[in-house]
Amino acid sequence: MKGVVLCGGLGTRLSPLTRITNKHLLPVYDKPMIFYPIDVLVRSGIKEIVIVTGEEHAGRFLNLLRNGQDFGLDHLSYAYQEGSGGIADAIKYVEPFIQDDSFAVILGDCIYEHEFRSCIEAFEADKEMEAAVHLMHVDNPKEFGVIEMKDGEPFRIVEKPENPPTDVAVTGLYFYRRSVFDVIKTLRPSGRGELEVTDINNYFISKEKMMFFALYGYWLDCGGSIDSLYRASEVIRNAKKQEGK
């Protein structure tokens, strides 16, 4: 399995910090934000990664990450996303890198405590499944895409619902096979002018081709606000203190 780290967007919710840099280059405690998703992919056994970014700060990722050897990667590639077309739009740019492999997509502003090697093994073993999402219970489901159930089974993902049907959120980690590129070609922009990853995932759910994994430990969505960025730094700082680092 290969890895894809999405680092596009304008980061307007973290302005003015993002006026002069990409939000994924901002510090979370003692490391740039992007170090964390790369690290969890490597801990999960992924050794080939592509970074998807855009806008005027793209070159800074190359300066920071170089060829990826500092992370133990065998290969680090870069893809340029034109504009801010959404997560699904960003995924389409990695097709030449992925070729016929399966791949994990992780949002560059998400931090996970635990690796997910066992999830990769389960997905790779079930060739009938075309996609997977990773779920966690959250206190604020209105802020996320959440799972709606029907007859005891996941029925669809509802994006930021006013009245959440559950408190089970879809985190910023997805697995796909190359069939996802054909699905992306059928998508139309949403009301906010983007190609939505929720539309991809709901397609695979409707075809009964979606796997669901429950994640444990902390999941930090640190790019949503100044407060979330601050809280992420506090969590990492406290975790390192407990580990004696």
Record the SSE blueprint:
Elements: E1 2-6, E2 27-28, E3 31-32, H1 35-43, E4 48-53, H2 58-65, E5 75-80, H3 87-92, H4 95-98, E6 103-107, E7 110-112, H5 117-125, E8 131-137, E9 145-150, E10 153-159, E11 168-176, H6 179-184, H7 197-206, E12 210-214, E13 219-221, H8 226-242
Parallel strand pairs: 1-4, 1-6, 4-5, 8-12
Antiparallel strand pairs: 2-3, 6-11, 7-13, 8-11, 9-10
Model description:
- There is one protein chain.
- The protein has 245 residues and is an alpha/beta fold.
- The protein has one domain: Spore Coat Polysaccharide Biosynthesis Protein SpsA, Chain A.
- Helix content is 28%, strand content 27%.
- It is built from 8 helices and 13 strands.
- The strands form 4 sheets. Strands 5-4-1-6-11-8-12 form a 7-stranded mixed β-sheet. It has a two-stranded antiparallel ribbon with strand order 2-3.
- Helix 2 (58-65) links the parallel strand 4 (48-53) and strand 5.
- The model has no long low-confidence stretch (mean pLDDT 94).
Descriptive keywords:
single chain, 245 residues, alpha/beta, Spore Coat Polysaccharide Biosynthesis Protein SpsA, Chain A, 7-stranded mixed sheet, two-stranded antiparallel sheet, 8 helices, 27% strand, globular
Brief synopsis:
The chain has eight helices and 13 strands. The protein is of the alpha/beta class.
CATH superfamily: Spore Coat Polysaccharide Biosynthesis Protein SpsA, Chain A
> What is the number of strand segments?
13
Portion in beta strands: 25-35%
Number of helices: 8
Spatially, the strands of the biggest sheet line up as: 5-4-1-6-11-8-12
Level-1 CATH class name: Alpha Beta
Tally the structural domains: 1
Q: So, CATH architecture?
A: Alpha-Beta Complex
Q: Helix and strand string, N-terminal first?
A: EEEHEHEHHEEHEEEEHHEEH
Shape: globular
Largest sheet: 7 strands, mixed
Radius of gyration over all CA atoms, rounded: 17 Å
Overall pLDDT level: 94
The CATH topology: Spore Coat Polysaccharide Biosynthesis Protein SpsA, Chain A
In the predicted model, the low-confidence regions spanning at least 5 consecutive residues are none
Helix content: 25-40%
